C-alpha cells in the first residue's frame, strides 16, 4: 500500500530543478520520495508503469470530463515518481482534453518512461 500511495502522491515541490538531468525519471526525486529504499522504488515504478500503459490505451477513448479526470490522476502519479514529462503532457491533456497532438505527446513521454523503467530492471 505504501508503494501505491507514493506513486499517487504529488511532490511538495515543482518539477524543477531536475537533479537527475534529462532522464525520463528523476531518480534523485524518487529516492527522496521512497527514503532511498531501492525495493520500494522498484515496486513504485512497476505500479506506475502499469498505470501509464493502461492510460495510453484508455485516454483516446474517453470523452471530456473522463479524460480530464484520468489525466489529472496520471499527472499526480507522475510527479510523485519524478516522471515530469509525463506529468507535463498529462496536465496539457487535463487542460485541453480531446486534442490528438497532446495524446501523441503523452504517448511519446510514456514510451520513454516505460523504456527507462525496463532498462532499470535489467
Automatic annotation (TrEMBL):
One of its GO terms (biological process) is phosphorelay signal transduction system. Residues 63-104 form the HPt domain. Gene3D superfamilies: HPT domain (1.20.120.160). Keywords: Two-component regulatory system. It comes from Pseudohoeflea suaedae. One of its GO terms (molecular function) is protein kinase activity. InterPro entries: HPT_dom_sf, Sig_transdc_His_kin_Hpt_dom. This is Hpt domain-containing protein.
Amino acid at each position: 500500500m505504501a508503494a501505491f500511495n507514493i506513486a499517487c502522491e504529488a511532490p511538495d515541490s515543482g518539477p524543477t530543478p531536475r537533479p537527475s538531468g534529462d532522464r525520463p525519471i528523476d531518480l534523485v526525486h524518487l529516492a527522496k520520495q521512497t527514503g532511498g529504499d531501492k525495493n520500494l522504488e522498484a515496486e513504485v515504478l512497476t505500479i506506475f508503469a502499469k498505470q501509464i500503459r493502461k492510460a495510453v490505451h484508455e485516454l483516446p477513448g474517453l470523452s471530456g470530463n473522463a479524460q480530464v479526470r484520468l489525466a489529472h490522476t496520471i499527472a499526480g502519479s507522475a510527479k510523485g515518481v519524478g516522471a515530469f514529462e509525463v506529468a507535463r503532457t498529462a496536465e496539457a491533456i487535463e487542460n485541453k482534453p480531446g486534442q490528438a497532438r497532446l495524446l501523441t505527446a503523452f504517448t511519446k513521454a510514456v514510451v520513454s518512461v516505460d523504456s527507462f523503467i525496463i532498462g532499470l530492471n535489467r
